[in-house]
Specification:
alpha/beta, Arc Repressor Mutant, subunit A, 226 residues, transcription, Rossmann fold, 3-stranded antiparallel sheet, 9 helices, 5-stranded parallel sheet, 10 strands
């Protein structure tokens, strides 16, 4: 089967880049484009005809749910996964009614993202070999797409507190020149070891990148960038 082509619609370019990196870690997928607004997204979806769209909800020029319905009406061979900070029940209901195959709340945990894309790939592989189905096969196809892994299988690992993690993300967001583990520890009031553990976890899931920088004297230091 050919690679599944993903189009990312996300107003924050940094988050779009994280989504792209996450996607490229999973075999069988390729990112065919990125849009940061809904107007451009409609044009690009028409040109690219992607298999799957990763779609946010909040945009300066409209609502991602409206684009979801537009895709359902105009491009019925394109599926949609919502990736958003929106936690309102009515948003989730609208996404389900609009045919979204999943709804992932930011900040994204890579294991959760990977689980969704692996299930979708399995679904595409299975359905591509079928012409007619019985009830058992239909049930299996629906389970393949919609059955969720137990939350414990993709929870943040032991030793990583979600509140502290969010605090660190918000802090380094403003560090345009990057930050070291020692500097971060001093600024938020934790040990260098603790700050490094969080930073390295964020590197492992693609939230930040790390680079070695060389000063005029001493050993190179590891700096972290959002």
């Amino acid at each position: 089967m050919q690679n599944i082509r993903i189009f990312i619609v996300e107003d924050d370019l940094k988050i779009a880049e994280i989504n792209r990196r996450f996607t490229e870690k999973i075999p069988g997928y390729e990112v065919c484009g990125i849009s940061t607004n809904l107007t451009e997204a409609k044009e690009m979806i028409d040109i690219l005809q992607p298999d799957l769209v990763l779609l946010d909800i909040y945009f300066a020029d409209g609502n991602g749910i409206d684009l979801l319905w537009f895709i359902r009406q105009q491009y019925r061979n394109t599926d949609v996964i919502m990736i958003t900070a929106a936690k309102e029940v009515e948003r989730v209901q609208s996404a389900i009614r609009g045919g979204a195959i999943d709804y992932i709340i930011k900040p994204i945990i890579f294991q959760r993202f990977q689980q969704t894309l692996e299930k979708y790939k399995n679904y595409k592989e299975q359905i591509s070999t079928m012409s007619h189905v019985d009830q058992k096969q239909v049930d299996h196809l629906f389970d393949t797409v919609h059955k969720q892994t137990k939350p414990s299988e993709y929870l943040i690992p032991k030793g990583i507190d979600p509140i502290t993690l969010d605090k660190i993300k918000n802090h380094i967001k403003h560090e345009v020149n990057g930050i070291t583990a020692e500097q971060l520890g001093k600024e938020i009031g934790v040990s260098r070891t603790t700050s490094r553990r969080y930073l390295e976890y964020m590197v492992s899931i693609g939230d930040v990148r790390a680079e070695l920088t060389y000063g005029s004297v001493g050993r190179p230091e590891r700096r972290y960038f959002l």
